[in-house]
Predict the 3D structure of the following.
Amino acid sequence: MTGNQASAGHLLQLIREGRATTRGALQRATGLSRSTVGHRLDQLFAAGWLREGEATPVEGAGGGRPSTRLEFDAEHAVVLAADLGTHRTSAAVVDLAGTVLAERSGEMLITAGPDHVLDTLAQWFAGLLKETGTPHGRVCGIGLSVPGPVDWASGLVVQPPIMPGWDGFPIRGRLQEAWRRHIATDVPAVPVLVDNDANLMAYAEQRAGYRDCAAFLLVKVSTGIGAGVVVDGRLYRGIDGGAGDIGHIRLHDCPDALCMCGSYGCLASVASGGALAAQLSDAGVATASASDVRDHLAAGQPDAVRLAREAGRRVGAVLVTVVTLLNPGVLMIAGDLAGTPFVTGVRELLYQRAMPRTTAHLEVVTSRLGERAGLLGAAASVVEDLYSPERADARLAALGG
Ligand SMILES: [Zn+2]
């Protein structure tokens, strides 16, 4: 991006990333003339996307007139975000800087199917928005985190093992329709982004705590097992959204373990929260779900602790390959099983089997954002998409800028 290539959307990006936050700095960064920068900033101000912050003294000897600091106005619009789990869902109204303005969570079975879940969600969104006193017209997008593989371009869930009834379902259109019905207005349809939960958690966690980490890996172990990869600050999704789907890698030594995907011997069939719930039930410990496993672990239930450590070793064995391929700086373990026994198991296998060079600078950590990671990742991905240079320019053009 140089010279005349720098559109209003590019200027906005420089401001949002803090790389150039005054008129002078924008001129220097882009090579644009003072009047062109002024014209493009006018477009951004007219759209309500920018505001003026406090004046900052000019650097260097002699000073001069303080230049006005330009800021992205994170309050000019809101995002509706939701994190669909297998048993629980949380939803929130979030401003463009990621501040949660209103939030709700509760039991909702993903197995109830998309019609029921998306309708309920639209109803929740309408209630939450009302709580914040924000008019409908200020909703700029909806972000949805789902516990299954997503084709990023189409927003379709693809053959999800733990989301029966959702395969290929038109989530975007259905949620847009439900949302407009619940607010009962004729506002234009808002964009809906759908992504896999491990991806969005990885995105949120990397931004929140590890911005300097150029290769960040998050592994979520709840009902199923999935991974998200953030490289150079961007989610790495692979060619069709399939990157990180490590739960269904087949292991060689458990051919009789039936997986939720219908195959036998998958990693998730022996080492996921769902698998541990079944193993604990078989051992006479009442356990209905991955979150029950989490409760048993919190209480130090001995069978749960032993099985979680063994599951950690299973996952660690697969992660040896993953970590060797990616050479990440951070491996974050998240989800219902992400406690000490499981993480200990992962570390044991990683440090035993990976080359020392691979793990020399690797930090193995647990989640910082906890339950909110998926929600915040869903909101952030909507903002990044809508205010990326290309989308920003297209939206400005539509506004008549
Ligand atoms: Zn499987």
